[in-house]
Amino acid sequence: MAGFWRMSKAKSQEARSAKSESPESGSARPQPQPGWSAQVFDDIEWRRFEALCEALFAQAGMRTESQSHGADGGIDIWLHSDNSPKPMIVQCKHWRSKPVAVQQMREFFGVLKSHDLQYGTFATSSTFTSDALAFAKANGINAQDRQGLLQLIAKRTPEQQAALLCVAYEGDYWRPTCVKCGIKMVERQPKDGGNPFWGCANFARLRCMNKMQMAGRA
Questions:
Q1: Binning pLDDT at 50, 70 and 90, where does residue 72 land?
Q2: Distances (CA, A) of 22 to 95, 121, 178, 201
Q3: Do 18 and 181 meet the contact criterion of CB atoms below 8 Å apart?
Q4: pTM for the complete prediction?
Q5: CATH 3.40.1350.10 corresponds to the domain 2-174
Q6: Smallest Cα–Cα separation from 70: which of 204, 184, 178?
Q7: DSSP labels, 65-90
Q8: Which of 34, 78, 178, 211 is most deeply packed, by most CB within 10 A?
């Protein structure tokens, strides 16, 4: 399995950029929601969304494994159950408006087959296209969009729902995490003018060039 996790530089960059859409413009902190709604997904960045999904499955009695950053080989969360000899996998897409298409679902199915696994969950803070949903249903993939996730959360106890909300709004929940370094990005201004962008705080020390355009600033 180690070989599968080693991705080429090009594929690694593609996978990292696909984790999330650009967050809202500026570094202003959105006010946390008092309860669960779709707005929570829009308030948080991709790493908080993955942590939320992991906590949601952990509440269901699963033992979970994940990694905070770097190339993940198309797997964001591993799920282990005492009732299953094989693990299950989860891929998370923190997209605000862009629907997950059948292409992403086919790629996830390929990851399942490469690990000789039968079941997996594809979770997104957005929606799925009709083709993606049809492919998921035909191939045993549990597709959970924002409404599906909200329905799962609604089935938890009030205490569990509050705990999940704390996970979502932990720390600088609105500030994107560098997918390469795993630290929070900072707002930067181009030296030659132009639109500000999110840049890695490790640029000076590690020369990490990862950056993300701010939504609404194009």
A1: low
A2: 9, 23, 12, 17
A3: no
A4: 0.78
A5: yes
A6: 178
A7: EE-SSS--TT-SEEEE-TT-SS-EEE
A8: 178
